[in-house]
Amino acid sequence: MPSVVLASRAHLCLLDDVRESKHSQLMCQEKRDKGLCPYYHDIEDEIPIIAGIDELVQFGKQYQRCPYFCSRNNFYKSPFIVCTYNYILDPKVENVTVGKMSDLHQTLLVFDEAHNVDNVVVDAQTLTLSLDTLELATISLNRLSKLLSIEASKRPLENEYKRLVEGLKHSELTKETEEERQKLFSNKKTTKRIEEENDIPIDTITSIQFVILMKGIVNFFREKLREAPIHKKQHINEHHSIPIKSVVDSFCDSLALTPEIVSLIPLRLHLLIKALGDEYGGRQDVKGDSFYYDDLYLVADFAALLCSCQEGFSYVPDVVKMDKDNCFHCVLNLICVDAANAIQPTLNKFHSIVFTSGTLSPLKTYINILGLNNVVEEKQITSSFSNTRRICPLFVTKGFDSISITSQTPDTSGTEVKQDRILFSSQYTYRSNRLIIHSYGRLIVELSKTVPDGILCFFPSYSYMNICISYWDEMKIIESIYLNKLIFVESNDGEETSLAFQNYRLACHTGKGAILFCVTRGRLSEGINFTNHLARAVLIIGAPYLQSEILTIKERIEYLDNKKVISKDDYLIFDAMRTCNQCVGRCIRGKNDYAVAIYADKRYRFNDSKIISSMPQWIVDALEKRFTDISADQSIKLTKEFLMNMSYLFNNQPNLKSQKGKTIWTLEDIHKEQLSSFNE
After folding, report:
1. Which PANTHER family does its entry note (predicted)?
2. Which helix H or strand E contains 158, and what residues bound it?
3. CA dist 49 to 59, 74, 77, Å?
4. What does pTM read for this prediction?
5. What homologous superfamily is domain 385-651 in, according to CATH?
6. Given this model, what pLDDT does residue 79 score?
7. Burial of 196 (0-12, 13-18, 19+ CB in 10 A)
8. Helices (H) and strands (E) in the chain, counts
9. Neighbouring C-alpha atoms within 13 Å toward the C-beta of 326
């Protein structure tokens, strides 16, 4: 089937400096405006029938065409479009790509790997302002003031007014360029309402007045930042959010604006900067090489979203510790707390939507969180994994090390001393417990002796991973691991992580194997395939529960709890287990893959229905009672047993007849399923 992929310049641009730039969009536009891009021509030409990233890049190099714009200008012709979530769920991106298609109401939308859709929606519509942002926005406004004072800028400003008025009347602003910044949270109804109510339209404000207005907006938020420490001190043990309506009323009253007009500010700002010819700091008559307006746009977007959002958002001033200087800073958070409310405008555009994932469990929870009220069918696909059991899940709750427990005997005056195994846990109170960290280290050492090829080891956070590695180095555990396997570590830096992954693969392919230390919710926990011998074991150290005291997380959990969507405890378990499921899923990517999955924490319990119901069926089918609540040495024994059995498995493949009606369907099975669906 003909298909095309939508991807960013980071994947498709053929110019190294543009592809690697933080401001690739503006650098690309600058080169195109100055005629410096040798590939930007004939972009309407036909592209390969199957136009994936590799095919587009190869096509671009062969025919000297820009793969990025060839994709953007031809995707609407294809019956099959592949893109990342942000092309569908982020309003800023969706409005200039998929949202421009006229036949979305006849389109089937498929969310693959849909287990994380709710988080993507929430993140796309959550904004934060800091004092640094406001200071940089002020610098941008001062630059605009200087540009407006220059006589040469008068001519393009007249064109700006004409284009703005024409654009609002005919809604054709986006046709000038696919890069044109969209109205983030406004629509045609907003413009019509302004005309009907005889409000002061945004185009009657001169450019100088508009800059003054933007300075007023910046000053308003600066004043709110000054109030943040007082607000936090007064509500230290209470609900931190402020009713949005009161903030919007204060904002509009202080600036003499209506919410409808505020929603148009991001568009007006973009048109002004474009009319001045300064989108990429290109004006030479004002100092500021490589000058960008990102922070000023963020302020405008924040104001527009604040005045446009209704139910499902929280406005929260806060004081947080920043990583850059390890100091406390005031911030203003506009948090999307309701994924269901945020995703509905997108879902309403399409004819049908399919959510699919190998770790979409439990289905009812996803349906509730996303507010899917008109679900036609929900189904768990059966798998042949339960027959061949190529995954061996182990709940390891106790370590190798023992501790002495002294207790007073009730019937005598003496004391009783018992030896008990140390319990595994990554809870905050145990983060620095050297006995627990030592037991985790010993478990890795024994696994490195037992498991061939590659081992993935996931930590709940970067900080805990660094603590463990530091302690293990002191305890000579790292040295013991090196006797069996090489060690590679994921970092916050994307390039370092990519290099570590490449060398890990090389070690597994050519040497005695390696261990890759990763972080749950990190770069390597999703989207990377560790097929075959790249992961014969996955070790999850601790339980990756969210830090519920982080304000953005706390606000969302409280909202879901208050709305009776899902309770706080249930949500924390659900989110932790879907994170674990994704980590384990890295090692099962094909029919010949097999691996041991070790959950090392006392909180993984076989009799906890919330834990089990949050695991996908292909893992639950392989989970036996004897695999749970075991010690570290028992897990090593079971690992050896499983790997030994797997070494003989492929000589004794299961009878294909046993898969009939499950993973192998005949024409009769298909007709039967269709009839069943029709009757429902």
Report:
1. DNA REPAIR DEAD HELICASE RAD3/XP-D SUBFAMILY MEMBER, GENERAL TRANSCRIPTION AND DNA REPAIR FACTOR IIH HELICASE SUBUNIT XPD
2. helix 154-170
3. 11, 11, 11
4. 0.80
5. P-loop containing nucleotide triphosphate hydrolases (3.40.50.300)
6. 86
7. exposed
8. 29, 16
9. 0
